[in-house]
């Protein structure tokens, strides 16, 4: 299992958490998604392609730093 940790400065609320979790959770190889509002980070567990995780965050309407 690999971990991907990305900074996502636009995370501000529960809606952000839900949108990002739903989008990133559909990426093949992702087994867990953790969105931290206070730290403004997204952490995934699994064997996903980091570019695919970034694309899913973009699709949810957020940008990675």
From TrEMBL:
Record-linked Pfam families: HMA
Coiled-coil residue spans: none
Gene3D superfamilies cross-referenced by the UniProt entry: 3.30.70.100
Keyword terms of this UniProt record: Metal-binding
Domain HMA: residue ranges: 2-65
UniProt keyword Metal-binding, yes or no: yes
InterPro entries: Cu-bd, Heavy-metal-associated_CS, HMA_dom, HMA_dom_sf
Identification of the protein by name: Heavy-metal-associated domain-containing protein
